[in-house]
Amino acid sequence: MEYSQKFKILDIPPVVQELVAGGVHEPPVQYKVPEQDRPAAVSEMPEPIPVIDLGRLSANNAEEFAKLQSALENWGFFLAVGHGMEPSFLAETMSVSKEFFKLPLEEKQKVSKIAYGDTLSIEGDILSEYTVKCRAVANIVLQNMAKLLNLDEEYFTNKFADTSYTLVGFNYYPPCPKPDHVFGLRPHTDGSAITVNFIDADVSGLQFEKNSTWYNVPIVPTALVVNIGDVMEILSNGFFKSLMHRVVTNTEKERLSLAMFYSLDMEMDIEPVPDLLDDKRPPRYKIKNKDYIAKQTYIFATGKQTIDTLKI
Ligand SMILES: O=C(O)CCC(=O)C(=O)O
Ligand SMILES: [Fe+2]
Fold first, then answer.
1. pTM (whole model) above 0.90
2. Beta carbons within 10 angstroms of residue 60's beta carbon
3. Does residue 79 contact residue 196 with C-beta atoms inside 8 Å?
4. Closest listed residue to residue 103, CA positions, set 21, 7, 5, 204
5. Fe2OG dioxygenase domain: from which residue to which, for each copy (predicted)?
6. What band does 297 get if pLDDT is binned at 50, 70 and 90?
7. Count of C-beta atoms within a 10 Å radius of residue 167
8. Is the ipTM value over 0.95, yes or no?
């Protein structure tokens, strides 16, 4: 399957980095979280984090498939190994991304201005290669999710073809003077179908919620974090649940994550797969992807969950 490697740069994130470099030692007021919502201590993981070998999964290994099922149904995410990306390739991808953030603000904004509303081709460079490899990871996961729902293996990969919407999120978190007063990223579910996230090797900070308790996602070098987003919750009519997660900062180290958000074509409806519906399981959500993405941007700013506003 061929995929377009064209991406739009939508925005350059808020420039906390420059504030820190300029000697600002208090988080700007708009980042401060009300006391009752601040990141508190997290719990120890009750059981080991699910680690799935995608090589074994592609070879139809039954044990790996069962592990995937348990990870997706119990956690909503897993760490993917056996994805075929060499440690040196991943290290280079991270280093190229860091270089971008180290550019002076004006340089970053130049990229943003030139590319805004335009299509930026990143073909031929390492990030382009990374996006192709990540797409392969997403496909393996989508094929296996289809199998878990007793659908044709290519059901989702066909739906997520050429014109589907993929967002590449570069998240940069500078060291923060008051990590307990702010979130790197406040609690949210992703508006994607699935997200494939590559996190800086030595800086943790990603946390997820299960049964109202927050847990740290441990760092497993070269493993990618794959999580379920809202679109897959909707397509599966609630069988899969999108993962509530957040990012906390620390005083010592900067942190970078590279998140690939896979979604549907903008013009498509996001609605449950018809084969999954019957009298006992009526459709629970429906919206056009375009409207969904617009709504998500707005709702995220209010701190609510978009998917909760769509339930029929
Ligand atoms: O930085 C991370 O590890 C997670 C980022 C994230 O959740 C997002 O961009 O939606
Ligand atoms: Fe996220």
1. no
2. 10
3. no
4. 21
5. 162-264
6. low
7. 17
8. yes
Distance of CA 186 to the CA centre of its chain: 13
Shortest-distance Cα residue to atom 1 of ligand 1: 257
Does the CB atom of residue 55 touch ligand 1 within 6 A?
A: no
Summarised one tens digit per residue, pLDDT across range 102-142 is: 777 666 655 544 333 333 344 347 877 888 899 999 999 99
Looking at residues 234-263, what average pLDDT do you find? Answer: 90
Q: Show Cβ contacts of residue 7 under 8 Å, excluding neighbours closer than 6 positions.
A: 119, 120, 122, 131, 166, 167, 168
Task: Write phi, then psi, for 248 (nearest 5 degrees).
Answer: -110, 155
Find the mean pLDDT for residues 56-85: 96
What SS3 class is residue 102? helix
Q: How far is the CA of 175 from the centre of ligand 1 (A)?
A: 16
Q: Which residue has the tokens 């709504």?
A: 295
Does 259 sit in the ligand 1 pocket, CB within 6 Å? yes
Q: How many CA atoms lie within 13 A of 224 on its CB side?
A: 33
| Residues 307 and 234 sit within 8 Å (Cβ to Cβ) | yes
